[in-house]
Please model this.
Amino acid sequence: MSIYDHREQPAYRPVDFDPQYAKNQYILEWWTPEHDKFLSEHIAIMQWAWWSGKITDEIVKLTDKNIIETWRMTDPICKKYAWQNVLLYFAGAYVKQLGLDNKIKQPTWKICPLCNQKFVENSLPMPLIDRLGIDKIDFCSPCLQNKIFPNTGDNYASAKKIKKYLVELSSTIGRVPPQAYGEGATDFTNLSTDERLALFRVMENKPTSNRVKKLFGSWLNALIQAGVLEDGTRKASRGIQSIAKDGHVCLSLGERTIDEYLFAHGIDHKKEPRYPEGNYRGDFKVGLTFIEYFGLTGNPEYDAKTQEKIRLCKKHNITLVAIYPEDLISREKLENKLSILITN
Model:
């Protein structure tokens, strides 16, 4: 059994940090009150999971890299043990010395709404805690591990079952699901427990990426075959109308995916802007930039209108960001198209 198979025992064995580790003079030479403050704040947030997270990475970020390098080269114990472990054990002992361990709450026992079985919060390994958030651990590890990790899912799902899954997934999240949706570290960050429950129930029918590729050739083609994305063989009609989180009415899931990206990144945008001439409207306008979702590329009538919009943008010196269905199947592709609109 792996650490992901348990509900009633900690994923990690508790560590009893020897107080002697806190007396490391080589670390104390560069340790500052700012580091103390970080430990206090980190424990307040992470509680019982504080030491199994990326605490050493955060300490390094707080410290000049030359100081860290000098310490690593001069501290004798770093020649015997990995320096990351030396720093972790120092932090653990130092936390005890400061009395911060007395502020750590005990993990709570809960009932997983997916399987209705009892589990304790610290039975979840850190990759799951990172995805759910320390304050939203409402599902047990065995129920999650086959849904949100790469190369997990049903490797024998039929084409019909996969298409049904994609329709239900799109409906649940309200946008076009990128390839391997659910496997990203931030896919569930802003979802409530009820929203996660609905999503995880859909993901019980998740197919493996290999199965999708085998039956459909690509994630894009699977989305098209499921009717989630448009393609050029259809009439130039609009897709499923829905309302984005910012209240904008979107005429397809592709439009909504773009709208919610803009909203999530704080990019002010207008819907249905008029072109300088002709009876044309764009999908979005950000500043002086037009964004068009060309979802029906391949349809002759639609392609003619697309070319006319491109011509008008060139004529009037309008920057045009053209987005196609294939740009929606991964976070990276959509980021590449829209990241130019993000201002720091």
Observations:
- The beta strands are 109-111, 118-120, 242-243, 249-250, 270-271, 284-286, 289-293, 320-323.
- The chain has a mean pLDDT of 90.
